[in-house]
Amino acid sequence: MKQLVLAEKPSVARDIARVLGCHNKTKNYIEGKDYVVTWALGHLVSLADPEQYGKEYKTWDMDTLPMMPKQWKLTVLRKTSGQFQAVKKLIHRNDISSIIIATDAGREGELVARWILQMSGNKKPLFRLWISSVTDKAIKDGFAHLKKGKEYENLFRAARSRAEADWLVGINATRALTCKYNAQLSCGRVQTPTLAMIAQREEEIRKFQPETYYGWKVSALGMTFVWEGKNGNQRIFKKELAQNIGKKLKAQKITVKKVERKEKKTYAPELYDLTALQKEASKRYGFSPKQTLNLMQSLYEHHKILTYPRTDSRYLTSDMTDTLKDRIKASAAGPYKKTAALLLRKEIKGNRRFVNDKKVSDHHAIIPTEQSVRLMELSADERKIYDMVVRRFFAVLMEPSVSEQIRIRGEISGEQLQAKAVLQKKAGWKDACEDQEQEENMMTNLPDLPEEGKQYVCDAPVMTEGKTKAPGRYTEGTLIDQMDKKGLGTVATRADIIDKLFRSYLLEKDGNEIKITSKGKQLLDLVPSDLKKAELTADWERKLTAIANGTQNDQKFMKEIQNYTQALIQDIKSADGTFHHDNMTRQKCPQCGKFLLSVNGKHGRLLVCQDRNCGYKKTIARLTNARCPVCHKKMELVGEGENQKFICSCGHKEKLSAFKARKAKEGKAMSKKEVSRYLKKQQKEAEAPINNAFAEALSKIKL
C-alpha cells in the first residue's frame, strides 16, 4: 500500500517527491515505491457561485437579496478541472491507504486540501505535514513527525468560516450596491475598512493647518546647545515671545549647570515577520507588499534558502537553537563571510530577545535555512530581500551596541539650554547592518567636557524656524503596517487586499503615496457605516483565530455573520444616495459605443469601458523604471509600436528608439532579450484583470 501526498504547488511536490524517492513522473503526479505525490495548483475547488443555488440568482435583482445558502455548495474550478479529476482518481485508487496533506502550513493551505478531499468524497485516514522550509532536511524531519489530520480540524473550520463569511458579506453587498446605484461597486469586510482608513488620512491632511514655530541654537564648547522651555519643549509658537528669548541669549556666556554621562546598550531589532519585512522593503526599495511576498516565496520555494514567509511571529522556538550554527554556515557567502566567521568562533545561545515559544503561533520568524546559498543564482531583487533577512538574523545573534550618552545642561539669563552627544564605544550588532541609520549627534571623538558651575563663551544665538507638517499619506509599506496594527486581514491576505483596491480603481498612486479616487470616496459614502469600521473585521479575525484554537464554535460565528449580512443589505436597500462617474471621457468604446472612463491604474493610465459586461480597456500610459535624464524621476511610456515614447512630468520627452540609443552610448544598454522581456511584462500588466475577486460575478450584470 502507498500514501498519497497532496502538495499545493508542483514545485513543492517535485521537492517532496525527490526526497521520498519518487521518480516515475506523469503529467499529474510523481510515483514511487511507497508514495504518490500530487499537487493542487492552488485552489482546485471553491464555494459555488450564486447562480448554482437557483435560477432566481442568475439575474442581479435586489429582491433576491440577501442570499443565504442553507447548505453550502462547492464547485470545481473550470481552469484546473483536469488536475482535480486526476487527484480525485488517485484518492480512490485501491493501493492508496491514506492521505498526507502537504499544502502550505497555514489556514488557507488547509482549506485548499480539505475542499479537494471533501469534493472527492475521501474516506481515507488523513495525516498532516507541517514544515516551515522546503529544504531536504526539513522535508525529512517533517515526514518523520507527521501529525494526525484530526489535530487540524479546527484550523479547517476557521478557514471555511472565513471563506463563507466573505462570500456572504462580499457577494451580497456587491450585488446590492451594484443594483442600487447602477454602477460597478464592490465591498468586503477587509477592503472597505482599509479604504476608509485611507480616506480618513486624506481628511486629516485636508483639514490640517500648518503653524509656524521658532527655536534657538547657541554654539559653545564645540557643541550645539538648543533652547528648551518647560517639559523639554523646543518649539515657540509666538514670534514675539521667541524674539524676547533671543534678546536674553544675545552676547552672553553660558553657565554649565550639569554634565551627565551614561553608558547605553542597544539590542538588535527583532527578527522579521512578513509584515515587518514588507514595510521595510517598501521604505528601502519601493517594493509593493505583493512584490515582497512573491520574492520571499521564490526564496522559500525555489531557492530554499529562507523559511516560510507567511508568518506573524518575530521569534524562534527553543528547539531551533541547535540549528543556528548550521544556518550561519549556510549563509556564509560573499559579503556575509566575515560576520559569519566571527559568529562561528563563539558559542551560539538562544535568549528571550529572539527565542520565545509562547510568541510563536503557526510559524516562527523569517530566517535563513540550513541550505547553502548561491548568491549568483539570485536576481537583483531577490538579493535585496535575502540581504535584509540575513543581516537581521546575524544582528540578533551578536552582542549589543554600546555607546556613551552625554548630556550637558546650560543656562543663559535664566533660559535653559541643552546639548547632547553620543560616543560610539562598541558597534556590536550594528556591524552586521551596514545600512543602519546613524544615531543623532553621534561622535567618534568627544571634546573635553566642561566643569559644572563654570561659565564659557558662546557664539551669537541663531533663531530657527519651521512649520508643523500634516500627517503623511500612506505608502504601501506604511499601509500594510497600519492594517496589521488594526487587525485588518492576515499576513497572508493583506498584500492581495491592497492590490484588489488598486485593480478596482478605488485607490491610485502618486509616486509612492497612495490616494483614494473619486470612485473610492463615493463608495464609502454609499456603504453602511458599520462595514467601514476596522474594529468589526478585527473582531472577526480574533474569532476566527479562536475557532482555529478550538475555543469558539464556528456555527455560532456563522450565525452572527448571517444576522450581520441581513442588517447590511437592509441598510443598503433603505439608504439614499447617488453615484456618478466624474472621470467620463468623450471617447467612445469601440466595442459597445458607450463613453470610456479615464482611470489611474497601479502601473499607469488606462481607458476603461463603463459597462462591465463589455470589459474593453486600453492602456494609454505605463509608468516605467526608466529615469528622466533631466530630473531623474520615473517616466511614463506612451503610444504604440514604433511611436512609443517616454514622457516625464518635468516636460522631457524622448522616443523609445532614442532612449535605447542614449543608453547604448552611456554603456548601459539592455540586450534585445531584456528589452523584449520588459515590454512583454508591461503588456501583461496592461492586460491583467481590472477588477477584484468578484469580477466574474460582476460580469453577469446588465447595466
TrEMBL record:
Residue ranges of the region described as Interaction with DNA: 186-191
GO biological process, one term: DNA repair
Residues binding Mg(2+), per UniProt: 8, 104
Superkingdom field: Bacteria
Keywords in alphabetical order: DNA-binding, Isomerase, Magnesium, Metal-binding, Topoisomerase
Cofactor(s) needed for function: Mg(2+)
A matching Pfam family: Topoisom_bac
Gene3D superfamilies: 3.40.50.140, Topoisomerase I, domain 2, Topoisomerase I, domain 3, Topoisomerase I, domain 4
tRNA processing found in the keyword field: no
Domain Topo IA-type catalytic: start-end pairs: 152-569
NCBIfam families: PRK07726.1, topB
Function: Releases the supercoiling and torsional tension of DNA, which is introduced during the DNA replication and transcription, by transiently cleaving and rejoining one strand of the DNA duplex. Introduces a single-strand break via transesterification at a target site in duplex DNA. The scissile phosphodiester is attacked by the catalytic tyrosine of the enzyme, resulting in the formation of a DNA-(5'-phosphotyrosyl)-enzyme intermediate and the expulsion of a 3'-OH DNA strand. The free DNA strand then undergoes passage around the unbroken strand, thus removing DNA supercoils.
Protein name: DNA topoisomerase 3
Organism this protein belongs to: Anaerostipes butyraticus
Species classification: Bacteria, Bacillati, Bacillota, Clostridia, Lachnospirales
